[in-house]
Amino acid sequence: MTRKHLFSLIAAFGAALPGSHGQAPGALHIADRREIFVDRHLVEKLESVELRMHAPRESGAVLYFDKPWEGRFSGYVTVLRDGDTYRAYYRGVPVSGKDGNEHEVTCLAESPDGITWSKPVLKQHRVHGSLRNNVVIAHETPASHNFSPFIDANPAAPAHLRYKAICGTRETGLLAYSSPDGLRWHKMQEAPVITKGAFDSQNVAFWSESEQQYVCYFRTMSKVGKTAYRSVSRAVSKDFLHWSEPQEMAFGDTPREQLYTQQTSPYVRAPHIALAIGARFMPGRQVVSDAEAKRLKVDPQYYRDCSDVVLFSTRGGTAYERTFLESFIRPGIGIGNWVSRSNYPALNVVQTGADELSLYVNEAYAQEGAHLKRYTLRLDGFASLHAPFGGGSMTTKVFTFEGKELEINCSTSAAGEIRIEMLDAAGNPVPGFAKGDAEVIIGNETRRIVRWKGNHDLSTLAGKPVRMRVHMKDADLYAFKFNR
């Protein structure tokens, strides 16, 4: 080893030691944010370990679109949690027609737990000759075609604008709505706020905490060669009324696919990461025969294609990360799940238990019995670092953190284990936090504090450039977070 190499190694090692103030150029600053493994943002090296996506578990139908003003073409669902109340907003329309037609209304269902749902009698709009309905918007074409609300997380948002929504068609552009309570909705201005786009899908907006601005992801079309693809563009705004020029989203070096919906929204436990749980549409890929369609009584326009649910993500900007190309949720058993425009996911993932997430999918579209089905995951359980029985490791990129302890969400077999060591920026073990100091982690927990010979205090490393190496055997690591 040359003297120059030796001094470089000492300097890098010293940057991670207590009392050192060295900085590593390009270190990622993760502060005390929770990190999940839907992308390779923090991953430097994998050795016999892979990023593995996990399929949600089917948990049964929770909401049938069975009212006269709802029906088989109901869809474009948004699920929100407001305190102790869960709300599902969706389009009600009993007959197929032009986007934004006069039959479309916006309906509301509510739940105390995200599992058992009911339809409140709101008495706000007269529909089918009666006020006894769950309709929050009616007779405002085209608002109800794809009305997509959110609860504004902008701390500067006034109370009377706490709820906001985006909606519209190609002919009208995207319109902005607001509400103080999620029940009484008003158009914020007559003119559309975004005009350049196709919009014939569920277009979504939210306040991006990490970017400190509103973002809107909406349907556009892009052409590759002679093929036109349903795609996504993005615009941003500081006030929700004045938006930037749209920019098309990039998907990296992955095959282009028809994305009917993209459902981009911040993950509730890690809002700096937006998950896009969208519908992948396969036009002309027919599974249902004419005879089966007749038996199902499916609308003749809606059985010559099929679709499933895919998962991708973004940390802001104009690029999606498509880590996994496989289906996130496959169509269920039964030919009725293979019709056109079925298997379309609702917007947002919500927590419905101490260790449970719920997401929802439109099923049996254009058929009698059209409904919303619930699927569940463990907390942070979209994907994991997965190690086989033979074992392996993952080493992170250089990062800095804020906090005093490391919390992980993990699962091992009875024979498996996880050990975590802290490294300096050059990749050398930090004394006291090396692999040999790490306590063996065995079990299945969503909140486990990592210890090294009984010590969990990492405050001496806070703010210093470090790496983390995870040694695993027959185990999954779903997430980690440094706690203050």
> Which descriptor suits the 3D outline?
globular
Uncertain runs are 1-23
Estimate the helix proportion, in percent.
Answer: under 10%
Structural class: mainly beta
Based on CA atoms alone, the radius of gyration comes out at 25 Å
Q: Count helical runs.
A: 2
Strand residue percentage: 35-45%
Average pLDDT, rounded to a whole number, is 94
How far the N terminus sits from the C terminus, by CA atoms, comes to: 40 Å
Descriptive account of the structure:
By secondary structure, the chain is mainly beta. The chain has two helices and 31 strands. Strands 2, 3, 4, 26, 27, 29, 30 and 31 form an eight-stranded antiparallel sheet that branches. Strands 5, 22, 23, 24 and 25 form a five-stranded antiparallel sheet that branches. Strand 6 (75-82) and strand 7 form a beta hairpin. The longest helix has 12 residues, at 3-14. The radius of gyration is 25 Å and the shape is globular. Residues 1-23 have low confidence and may be disordered.
